[in-house]
Amino acid sequence: MKHEKLRPNAVRVMGRNYIVCYEEDALLGTENLGICNNHQCIIVIKEGQHPVEEADTLLHEIFHAVWYCMSISDGGAAEEQVVRRMSSGMLSVFMDNPNLLKYFQSIQNPPHLEL
Length: 115
What we know:
The protein is α+β, with helices and mostly antiparallel strands and 115 residues long. The chain has one domain: Arc Repressor Mutant, subunit A, CATH 1.10.10. The chain is built from 5 helices and 4 strands. The protein has a 4-stranded mixed beta sheet with strand order 1-2-4-3. A hairpin with a 2-residue loop joins strand 1 and strand 2. Helix 3 crosses helix 4. The radius of gyration is 15 Å and the shape is globular.
């Protein structure tokens, strides 16, 4: 699959290099599709997800990393402050990881079914 060739094994988030691993359920438990360990700079993604779900999970875990790196929860930030920090953080992630956008673009969702 094209997306598997492009899926990242590392992502730079706000100057920190996060390792990205794709693992079976053993590390994640039954409920989790991904985990972000900010203290060790590791993102673990559940192996075997549909490509769209895998990309969504990776982006979700990157948001956790940005949230942590930008200290968004400190001081009870209001919505506009959160949106501003997340947009700045994600812009930094995309600028530092140009292949990440190629990975997201490689995901092929099946065409919409006509009902």
